[in-house]
Design goal:
4-stranded antiparallel beta sheet, 8 strands
Amino acid sequence: MKHHTTDAHTLAAAYALGALDDVERRDFDAHLRSCEACRQEAAEFQATTARLAVAVSQPPPATAKAQVMAAIDGVRQLPPRIPAPSQAPALGGLLRRRAVPLALAASVAAAALGGVAVWQTQNRQDLHQQARTAQQRLDAISAVLAAPDARTVHGKAANGALTTVVSSDQQDMAVFTAANLPAPGAGKTYQLWLDHNGTMRPAGLIDHNGTVILTGNPADAGAVGLTLEPTGGSPRPTTDPLLLMALPA
């Protein structure tokens, strides 16, 4: 699947992860020269990737080197694995098809696992629980992205945030992604809404760039809204919408 120009903003995470092919990476490099928001987002994703690696790294035991050196003479070297010619084109196609899911997945992983300062103070059991929770969210998002009836819309909020919604009636779910989202400020958070025939129903909170699964039933909703609300959210909007983006029929 070829990416449309409007999808370029969603590729920052895949770019940081090295998941774009040569053509896509060259095109995105050109896009970065004219898009400050994507330059900042790509840099943040690269920093997040490094923090994720540091957070789960484990120092090797002191005896590891001696054990490896003692056993190395008894290990037979295997020949290199050479993929069949038919596999090479499939890999490029797979990366192109999965570039947007990778971007969303990386956003979710960063949001679910938190900052490195928190990770370093948590014990291993807490970290594993966070990983399981993140995996469940990734699975749910992947199901929406891979659904045969998945529909995508893009928008731009009044505060400059770039937004994307992918919805699926079969999965009865929708996911919302925000980039270039300004900090909400002390005591504030961004709240998402589903517009059901003029009635705005709470659909979750988001306070930084990333991806969230909308709560509620998107199948009967006509639009997704975004407002700035007090921390914890509100039962109904208290400010004018920063975004009211129609969902595809």
